[in-house]
Structures are given as structure tokens and as C-alpha cells.
Amino acid sequence: MILFDRYPGGKKYACTFSYDDGCKQDRRLVELFNKYGMKCTFNMFSGSMMSDSGEGIKKHELSTLFAGHEIAAHAHNHPHLERMPLAAQYDQIIKDRQILEPHYGKIIRGMAYPFGTYSEDTFTAMKTAGIVYGRTVASNPSTFAPPATDTEFLTWAPTTHHNEAAMPVKRFIYNVEKAPWRAGGLLYIWGHAYEFDNEASPVKWEQFEEMLASLAARSYDIWFATNIEIYDYIKATQAIRISADGKMLYNPTDTDVWVSNGAENVKIPAAQSVIIE
Ligand SMILES: [Zn+2]
Predict the structure, then answer these.
(1) I need a surface site. Which of 22, 95, 124, 219 has the fewest CB within 10 A?
(2) Alpha carbon of 112 to ligand 1 centroid (Å)
(3) How far is the CA of 91 from the centre of ligand 1 (A)?
(4) What is each CA distance from 184 to 8, 86, 102, 177, 200, in whole angstroms?
(5) Ligand 1 mean position to 21 CA, how many Å?
(6) How far away, in angstroms, is 231 Cα from ligand 1 center?
(7) Is residue 227 within 8 Å of 133, Cβ to Cβ?
(8) Residue 223 Cα, ligand 1 centroid: separation in angstroms?
(9) What percentage of residues in the chain have a pLDDT greater than 70?
(10) What is the rounded distance in angstroms from the CA atom of residue 16 to the CA atom of residue 32?
């Protein structure tokens, strides 16, 4: 039986991170992710980058400091989008793309909602601005099921904020190591890097690094990816065409896809078909 329950390399699990606002602590955070071979999505609001004053992330750092990671939109002035007219919401989102993309050098397709809030119009504004997913600030620690539908991607709820990540990470690692009957899944952690410097925060740099190290030690079965890589991978699995007898699988996308076939993992390379015996 073919199941779309594998990530690249035939891994059963995936892990992604999302950090907001382009604060100065992002520089230290991205080094940590690089040290452990992890990928993060950094959500930047371009209004904060209009001048070179202040200590926050600058435009010229986007293609260098964050190489290998994703830069996503966060709305130009970090507004409550749901309180704005549709046209103004669109303007807030497209401005991020117009300002950030020339420095990032890639096409921006994702965003995190400022304050985690949005309205029905926000989805229209995003669609018009070419944005395919939106990250909320809701937590979804009870399941590691990744989004499957467009609606779920537009209201993408992370597993947990990093301050509450200890238990979900423990359960996730237990699944990876000791629960081969589990279906696999995605661990999604979000936050702001400045919180690691906040005296009142329960999770500081040291605790966060320990968490990363414990996840990196299980990289044999965890795929570390940015938000948009997760999106593109799931969309690619959904695009696989299967012959009526179930033996031929064709991948029309530019992303390699892995599926399970009983005890075996099968790779269906981009733009190729595979025959399963
Ligand atoms: Zn923010």
C-alpha cells in the first residue's frame, strides 16, 4: 500500500522553525541553527528596514546571513491586518515582497501574521500578493499532523512557542526513537529571538540550544526544513499521479518525493515515473 507518509530521504519526521520581527538576536539565532544543520523561516516586516539606523536586521544581510534559510513577509508596518481595508492589507503584504526580494534574491511566498491576527480579506490580499501560507500564533501541541489543505496552510498553527516546547519536543523525540507504529509528523516551533535575552522568559539561549542538540541527534529520521520547503514538499506529494493498477507513480513537480510501500521507502524523482513491483 502506497502512503504519502515520508519526507526527503525516506524520513518519517520533519522539523521547522519560524522567528519573527528581524531583531538583532536573529544574528545569534541563525548561527545556532547553522551549527545544528537546521532550517528556519525568518519573518521580516520591511518597514523596519527603511533606514540603516537601529540594531535590527538590515536589508543587505538578507542574502548572506540567512543563506539556506527562508525569508518570509510579516506585513510592512506590522499592523493588525484585520482592522484594515482589503486594498491596504494587500499593500502591506506586497510592499514586503517589493522591498525584501531584491535583497533576499529569492521569491517570497510565505508570511507570519503580525500579532497572529487576520480576517477573511487577509486571505484575499495574500492570494493577490502571491503568498501561499500564513503562520498564526495558535499552538497545536496535541498532534504533529502537518497542514494538508490550502485553508490549513493559510491558518498554519505551529506545534508550540519555544517557551512551551519542552513537553512537545520530548513527545516528538519519543515518537522518533521509540514509537515505530506512529505515523510520523511535523514539529513546528516559533518565537522571537529577543525573548531568549528576556530575564522573565523561561527558555534562554542555553536551554534552547540543548533542545536543538537533542533534535539534531535524531537527524537520522528528522528532516529539517524551512516552512516553504515543507509547503512545497506536501504539495508535491499531493501532485503525484498513480496508474489505475497502482503500480506506476509519476511526479510532475520539481521536488523529489518519497512514499512508503509497506516496509519499503520509494523515491519518486522530480519529473520522473517509478514502477512499483
Ligand atoms: Zn511580529
Answers:
(1) 124
(2) 8
(3) 17
(4) 13, 39, 37, 11, 34
(5) 5
(6) 21
(7) yes
(8) 26
(9) 100
(10) 14
